[in-house]
Amino acid sequence: MLVDTHPDIIEFIISKMQNPRILRYLIENTKDEQIKQLAQEKLKFTPLTKTESDLYQGIVNYRSMPGLGGFSNAAIREAEQKLATGGTYDVHNPEFLTGANISVCITKDFMNAVENDDVYELRFPDVENYTETEMKAYNEQWHEVGDVRKWEEMGYGVRVYRRIKAKELWNLINICATYSAEPGIFFIDNANEMTNAQSYGDQVVATNPCGKVASFASRKKIG
């Protein structure tokens, strides 16, 4: 599970996509160059050989003949599609994370950026420039904080890795979630506002991929 501010969130989502049609749709419709590039890298295209082209063309030639040469309409349509695309689309690394689910944490800041059509910052603790003391704090506390906003409030440096139109990232999440059932979506700020764990001084920092089992951290410990 990654939060919507994480610099690797785009690669995280696209790396799990196994449907070539989703990748082709993203390439054709996104305005974000990183999304387009990662989708192109994930998509695999195998051109038809001359023999395959001749075979498909032979099937298509029966289209206007009585009886369709024994082929079904579906077979002829598929042959036409193969000739139109010039090959077969597949994905690289089809076994990547097979059997595992992925999810993303959605914050209110992100949803506000989507609604206002704003640019959104992908950020993470600036560990490359931390002092020895700051790095020690990161190693000991970050896994319990898990929120770059809170981390920044605590006085630690945060690096902006890139800026993206919030709607482009939201569209990526929704397209992939709708047509491949991943990533799962967990509204973490809403969860923290509504959980009774607040009464015990705790907060939700993550869940399992299905959002059924929450992981809590003590606010007192990380505050």
From TrEMBL:
Signal peptide as annotated in the record: none
Origin organism lineage: Bacteria, Bacillati, Bacillota, Bacilli, Bacillales
Annotated GO MF terms: cobalamin binding; ribonucleoside-diphosphate reductase activity, thioredoxin disulfide as acceptor
PANTHER family with a match to the protein in the record: RIBONUCLEOSIDE-DIPHOSPHATE REDUCTASE, VITAMIN B12-DEPENDENT RIBONUCLEOTIDE REDUCTASE
Positions of the Ribonucleotide reductase large subunit C-terminal domain: 4-214
Source organism, top-level taxon: Bacteria
InterPro entries the UniProt entry points to: RdRp_reductase_class-2, RNR_lg_C
Native source organism of the sequence: Lentibacillus halodurans
Cofactor: adenosylcob(III)alamin
Name the UniProt record assigns to this protein: Ribonucleotide reductase, barrel domain
Name of one Pfam family that matches: Ribonuc_red_lgC
Alphabetic keyword roster: Cobalamin, Cobalt, Oxidoreductase
